[in-house]
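User:
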Amino acid sequence: MATLILDIETVGFDSDNKDSLSPYKGQIISLGVYDLERDLGSVYFVGNSADESFEDDNFSYKSRSEKELLEDFWETVSRYDVLVSFNGRAFDVPFLYIRSIALDVKPTVEIAKNRYVTKQSAPYHVDLFDEFSFYGNVTKKPSLAVLCEALGVDNPKLHMKGEDITDFFLEKQFIEIAKYNAKDIVAITKLYKKWLKNLAPSAFLNAVEL
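Assistant: Predicted structure:
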């Protein structure tokens, strides 16, 4: 089955860091996706019209409006059987739906799935935050940075953190935000491979191997 890794970066409309966490008061400024089987990724980012598309490692970077990056996402995700995120159910998915509705972009597939992968059908949505926090049973739930350090994955937050995004956006460092987005995608991909090898339910493995 075809697998797509997803991660987004957001800012608030009034440059308030807290608003960057709300799909009702913020916007998506960078959206990264990665095709696991093809080993290729794309980052669509809001930037200057002068920003040109470029490639770096296995990622292509494309300057878009927020509406265009949403259109690109929904066109892309419709071709996949498995969507993978980190805290996507609580953060990425609500943002994608609310901002799509606000900008008159029609979603192509249902990605707001049941929390438990064993109760889903294709296209599956594996939220690694849920999986590695054992569906809320862990006393202190891990951030992406904490989980990466615990499992021996390069921490994408060493040189830039989510709370820095608004300042970078105001300083028009759009390409830096896009590259940060790609680093998150790489980390999520590595975590997914570890989950797939060690924790994935047999029912899910059997389904995706069909």
